[in-house]
Amino acid sequence: MRAVALAVTCAACATTASVCPVGTKRVDVAAAQGRAQWCTNAPATPLAAVPGQGRTYESAFGTAPPPLGAGVTGPFTSWYPDGTVESHGHYLDFGSRSVPDGLWAFWYANGQRRTLGTYRRGEPQGCFATWDERGTRATGFVEGDQLRVAPCTPPAGDELAAIEGGEPATVEAPAWADISVQGMFGPGAIGASNAMQIDTAPSLQLAVNATARKHLGPFRFGPTAGMRLSGNTDYRALAAGGVFAIGLPALHSRLDADAGIELGAQYITGIAMRPMRRGVADVAFWSPLVAAQVAVAFKLSPYLAAVGALRADGAPARDVERDITYCDFSGCLPPQRETWQVGGLAYGLSVGLRLTIR
Q: pTM above the 0.70 mark?
């Protein structure tokens, strides 16, 4: 196999059309050699330190630490002085250094594509495509700072079309708030049980929660309300409370992860029925409700995301004494003193949709 030099200027580059990761801020700089935008949790770097056309790292493929230094993470895009896009990709911050990660692309000053390929934690992965100044394409696999020419299929570059018009890509505004609806499925109790009943421990079949959260940096907080349905159709509960969550580092620009807790109360209602005893009775109990979940949202659009979470909710069980009066069409029996256990734990997978307000 013949090897051809692959002249890739891995300018600090990525997709500013994506949202900056939690805990970082977008940096915009401009100088005579062009413009750039990136996300960082460190002080801004002058554009003079960003490698432009003809200036490279130790390796042409960005396997050496980028000049922007540590703290650069998420999307980055740079443009030539006339507004033509120069580079586009993502960085991943490893603490002591930041490295290319994901799809990266580079262009000549005339707007023609120069290189397209994928990096994995700073290392080129899979098939790369390069174009010479006449537009002739070559494909192959990166070995050192060379391209070993071979027939292969490079990654799709459809997402690059939005920034190839010579103008900076539109940057999404940061999230101001979000509204989500999620349903949890899994084992557990509805929260009211009595060993003397026909159904001694009604189970939780489905919990549906609606939450509205204000974003303040990495923090998210707001009210939540929900309904809990039992496998025994005579039992259900209404819940309300507040939620507090904190954003977690995301591995991809289309993912948003957070961990949160909810504190509130639920009102449980049911119908008591004892075996071999005529009549039924309405019962109701108040109970605290505490929930915790770790959620990951996958962006379907800038405003809508699918959410999946591991969730647990419930409260410590406690005994409640009640005088229960059983009645039927012929009348009521004398009150019966019963001990009900209120509380219990439920857990499972929660799925739903999230609407982001920007």
A: no
